[in-house]
Amino acid sequence: MTTIIVDRDLCNSCGVCSTICSMGIIKPGDKSTLPEVADEMAGMCIKCGHCEAFCPSQALTLNLRPNEKIKLPAGAGSILPEDMAFYLQKRRSVRNFTSDSVPKEKILEILDVARYAASGGNGQPVQWLVVHDRERVRKIAQLTIEWMKSLKDTNHPMKNYLPYLISAWEGGYDVICRGAPHLLFVHIPEDNQVAPIDAIIALTHFDLAAPAYGVGTCWAGFVAAAAGFYEPLKKELGLPAGRKIAYAMMFGIPRYKTFGIPRRNPLQVTWL
Ligand SMILES: Cc1cc2nc3c(=O)[nH]c(=O)nc-3n(C[C@H](O)[C@H](O)[C@H](O)COP(=O)(O)O)c2cc1C
User: Fold this and answer.
1) Does CATH number 3.30.70.20 belong to domain 4-68?
2) What band does 1 get if pLDDT is binned at 50, 70 and 90?
3) Which of 219, 258, 263, 265 maximizes ligand 1 atoms within 8 Å of its Cβ, making it the mutation to test the pocket?
């Protein structure tokens, strides 16, 4: 079982692959040997690809679809701190959308970025469900309202807020999906303890990447809550057995631009 492929002509036994390996299973090379993973250790490899990504001479390839190896172009992805700060500070929840749809190709491009999100043990448990059809989005909003109606006489924490949402919906105002053309659901295995965190991280990547593609997003908390509990909505989404919705996000083309940055609470930091 070979976990790494090392190009003898390029490897100079610098040892970075061994130092960087998240599982500590790469034995460094020396003058006469190449770095290697002992057969009995290979099963521990989590295929994070750090050995390959950090190899200064690009001599090493992780033996996982090796023909897909990507060399980072020099300077790629560099961003000035002030640009990064403004980019993140100007991200806003978008609740007003144009009538345009986001092409599927563009959605796939953004999701492709989210594929690189961190996940516990590189488990990558996250999968996506995109509701591209506006009518289906509307139906999901309607089902969310039905779920809210079913909570009326319970002690649900949202209880006091629900009559307002229901009457706004009945008055023709989409307080659930804000008239968004699309909904994104992130789904995970039912029995994976770390996956809910992985899902939020991946969805956050989508949220943060989207504006660079001209797409506006808003976390869809009501839909997400309903999708976890309301059988008719679960049925509508039709996830494969053993998977559950972790969260939801509405998205589309923003109708308005932002011209300022709203105030947030001052930083509260404790140093130890
Ligand atoms: C977990 C979560 C759930 C949310 N659910 C909704 C929602 O259902 N509907 C909505 O309009 N906004 C929702 N929001 C958006 C928040 O209201 C918004 O993030 C907050 O007001 C701050 O505004 P900003 O995102 O523009 O900074 C949600 C945000 C988060 C993080």
Assistant:
1) yes
2) low
3) 219
